[in-house]
Design a protein that fits this description.
about 325 residues; alpha/beta; Rossmann fold; two-stranded antiparallel ribbon; 13 helices; about 55% helix; elongated
Length: about 325
């Protein structure tokens, strides 16, 4: 990840602050509960004394001392958990509340950057912190079928708008569940305001929660970065380029809203083709029809998409307009 020294230090300070906050939370919990339940203090004192005693025995040649110590510590830890549980607290109440349990909020697993650090770097470089706020609202938990018609049918599939979006949600969930084992890509197309971006965000939220790296761009923003890097000859060009190709999931939203020209067409093909070769998943959403996609870009790009992406055609009434007017399918039933 192409981080300047200032950016790297910024992230490290965030992790250090998170560790200090964790320590503060644990100490507050200890200071609150230990006076209420004196046995907790007794257990800690017993653990310390037993550790010293058994270590002394081991030094003196008693090879069973370590096994005995392990057994005693296990029993004391179990008693401690039972005290917490019996008084309505979780068993791990005195463990630091790590945001990332894999690296314990250090940013590193051994000498390797943790997946949470890699995503934090992506967020910082591409100023995607606002995406996190959006995903708190736009996720499967908040997804509603109420704005999709159960009577409006697609002429080619015969499916209603409601049945179509339910099928789309199922495909998205399959995409998430098989993300680590099966290479797939999603291509959402259809009219404005029917949930294409929302579904992309739902997938992003789930994969971020699972620890995968996700980069989100509107098409115009993506091509702006390509243009700035390519023509500006920035020093971080190669590394920034690789981030787009190497992230676990790339989301390209609103394809077709950018100013299309030979450069954007060539860069789109490069991006799509390179990620396919690297077996890195991509989600694309567009208001263009498949015919318009061919006309706007090329047969070559359409061929890559049609043969490597699951095509999902959403249709129905503009959800944003329905919300503005206070309408939904449920309101009419």
């Amino acid at each position: 990840m192409a981080l300047s020294n200032t950016q790297y230090n910024t992230l490290i300070r965030r992790y250090e602050a998170r560790q200090l906050e964790n320590q503060h939370i644990v100490m507050e919990r200890i200071n609150t509960l230990y006076p209420k339940f004196p046995r907790l203090t007794e257990i800690d004192e017993t653990i310390s004394s037993q550790a010293v005693a058994q270590a002394k025995k081991f030094i003196e040649g008693d090879e069973s001392a370590l096994a005995q110590l392990k057994q005693e510590l296990s029993a004391l830890a179990a008693e401690k958990k039972e005290i917490l549980r019996s008084h309505g607290y979780p068993e791990d109440y005195f463990d630091p509340p790590y945001q990332c349990k894999d690296c314990k909020d250090t940013g590193y697993i051994g000498r390797e950057k943790c997946h949470c650090f890699q995503q934090a770097a992506i967020d910082l470089i591409y100023t995607q912190s606002n995406l996190r706020q959006i995903l708190e609202q736009e996720n499967f938990q908040n997804f509603s079928y109420d704005y999709y018609s159960d009577s409006l049918k697609h002429p080619s599939t015969g499916l209603t708008s409601l049945a179509t979006v339910k099928q789309a949600v199922s495909l998205c969930q399959d995409f998430i569940q098989g993300f680590d084992t099966e290479f797939k890509n999603l291509f959402f197309y259809g009219d404005t305001g029917i949930g294409k971006t929302y579904l992309s965000n739902c997938v992003a939220k789930e994969l971020l929660t699972l620890g995968h790296s996700v980069i989100y761009f509107t098409a115009s923003s993506l091509f702006h970065i390509f243009e700035k890097s390519f023509f500006g000859k920035e020093t971080n060009f190669n590394e920034d380029y690789q981030n787009i190709f190497d992230c676990d999931l790339l989301i390209i939203d609103d394809l077709g809203t950018e100013l299309s020209n030979a450069f954007t067409t060539s860069q789109l093909f490069l991006c799509i083709n390179e990620r396919i070769l690297r077996r890195k998943s991509t989600i694309i959403s567009t208001n263009l029809s498949l015919g318009q996609l061919v006309d706007t870009y090329s047969e070559r790009i359409f061929s890559r998409i049609s043969s490597n992406y699951t095509l999902i055609n959403l249709f129905g009434n503009d959800i944003r307009l329905q919300k503005k007017l206070g309408q939904s399918r449920r309101a009419h039933t």
